[in-house]
Each structure stands twice: as C-alpha cells, then as structure tokens.
Specification:
The chain is mainly alpha-helical and 185 residues long. The chain has a single domain, classed as Tetratricopeptide repeat domain (Serine Threonine Protein Phosphatase 5, Tetratricopeptide repeat), CATH 1.25.40. It contains 10 helices and no strands.
Length: 185
C-alpha cells in the first residue's frame, strides 16, 4: 500500500510539472512537434514526440482542472468508467474549450457503449483540435463498431496522415481496405 502511495505521489508531481505551463490544443509547441512526428525516423523517436504532444494536450490552464483530469484518468484506467464520465463532464463544464476533456469523455462513453455520445464528443474534440490523431482513431473505432466501414477507413486514414507511426491503426486500414474490396467483388 505504501508503494502505491509513493508511485501515485510521483505521478501527481510529474503530471503537475508537465501542466505547470499554460498549455492546451493551441499551444505554440504543438506545431513543430507535429512536423517532427511526420518526419520521425523510427517508432521510438515517434513515441517520444507523440508523448510530448499528449502531455501538452493533457495540460490545462487551471490547477483545479488538472487535478480533476488526473482523478478522471485514474478512474478511467481503474475501470471506473461512470465516475470518470462524471468527472470529465465536470471538467467540460468548467472549461468547454479543453479538447482533451472532450476526447477522454468520448473514450469513456465508447467503453460504456454510448456510441452516439462518444461520436458527439469526438466531433467536439476535432472542432477544437483538428490534428487530434487520437480522436480520429477513436472516430474510426466508433464507425467500425457501427459497421460504417467507409467512414471508419476515412477516419483511420486521416489519423495516419497526422501520425504515421500508429501500427494498430495501419493494420486497421489494411483490414478495412480488404473488407471493403471484398464487399465490392
């Protein structure tokens, strides 16, 4: 138990040190990171850049929002999807321009089977951050679950255009192309 408290404390310190600079989807540091992501030479280099993007997206301009985000992500990772959805909703009410709160709630809604709610939240995420490759990948998963394979393929392809270093999404694209081609035959 003591170990868990220490690890949690370290995570909180790291989380807040990342978020100590006002950062969100319009952060000036994102543009060069996206350029570097496109030009990354290998998956390891791409992962470092991708993590930097996610860290910026996770940061807000508010210590309160950051704390709620930390708690919501913890709930989500622990399987407390309803509690996480409640917290993400509270964050969205406090800061409706915070794209990552919308994205995280979209994920939780997807996991809860609320595909309409998830679709709406992904739409809002992409309205706020058009380059959100995670939201685009999520959109692909939603459309795939809805058996709208053309739309799923389009979403996955847009995600790969922004981040070509997502092997799972690349495999989804290959699979859907084969599936759609077989339907035409």
């Amino acid at each position: 138990m003591k170990y868990i408290k220490i690890v949690t404390f370290i995570y909180v310190v790291l989380f807040f040190s990342i978020g100590s600079v006002a950062a969100r989807q319009d952060d000036q540091r994102l543009e060069p990171l996206f350029e570097n992501l496109l030009n990354a030479n290998n998956r390891v280099e791409a992962e470092v850049i991708e993590q930097s993007i996610w860290q910026i997206w996770l940061s807000s301009e508010s210590d309160t929002v950051d704390l709620l985000m930390f708690q919501a992500v913890h709930q989500m990772m622990s399987g407390g999807f309803k509690q996480a959805a409640f917290l993400f909703t509270a964050i969205i009410e406090m800061d409706p321009l915070y794209a990552e709160a919308w994205n995280k709630r979209a994920t939780v809604r997807f996991l809860l089977g609320d595909l309409e709610g998830s679709l709406a939240d992904v739409g809002k995420t992409l309205e706020l951050e058009q380059r959100h490759f995670g939201a685009l990948a999520g959109l692909g998963h939603i459309y795939e679950r809805l058996e709208q394979y053309d739309k799923a393929l389009q979403a996955f392809e847009k995600a790969i255009e922004l981040n070509p270093h997502m092997p799972v999404i690349s495999k989804k694209i290959q699979y859907l192309r084969i599936k759609l081609e077989a339907r035409k035959a």
